[in-house]
Amino acid sequence: MTADPHSASPDTSPEEFWDNFYSAEDRVWSGKPNAALVRETAGLTPGSALDLGCGEGADAVWLARQGWRVTAVDVSQVALDRAAGHAASEGVGDHIEWQRHDLSESFPAGTFDLVSAHFFHSRLELPRDQILRTAAAAVAPGGVLLITGHAAFPSWVPDPDPEFHFPTPEEVLAGLDLADGEWDVLVSDVHVENMTAPDGQPATRTDNTLKVRRH
């Protein structure tokens, strides 16, 4: 049975939930990097990158192909194993370190020139603001924190949950609680992405992006 990310029993651990989610299909995502990652890293000098919630590894693989040394993190070992296979097939396996973390409990050590968190949403309880503040602390001087999230349900959802709140870029920035005078906001916007719905028809999804640089 396909795992439904909109429901889980209260005693299901994040690792179990997401392992079940990824085990339900041979491949869940497209295998292509997120458009915002490609767009917002253009012009950055490759260095060390941290990919939070890497899933099946498309962003990590793309970054490695651009010359980044990537630490890629997910709570699901199933996803990490699949991602490692993708990286090996693309010839960049030695440029990526895969780490399993429940980010509410542990976080990769070190600092990074790029910290990337794309679509870091969960129907399970998740201390999102706390994790993103830890992510900001992991940005090296001169480095960039890039956060992309959904701003609304995709166009193909017929009856979206009116109680579900997607944070705005301004709310994400406020939640980071960044020190005054130590960061520059480079991008804070909402944008529409063209995509294909599950039934193969053209569709759209509204997302938002926050990009900040540490001095």
From TrEMBL:
It comes from the Bacteria. Residues 196-215 are annotated as: Disordered. InterPro entries: Methyltransf_25 (IPR041698). GO terms for molecular function: methyltransferase activity. GO terms for biological process: methylation. Keywords: Methyltransferase, S-adenosyl-L-methionine, Transferase. Residues 50-143 form the Methyltransferase domain. Pfam families: Methyltransf_25. This is Methyltransferase domain-containing protein. It comes from Streptomyces niphimycinicus.
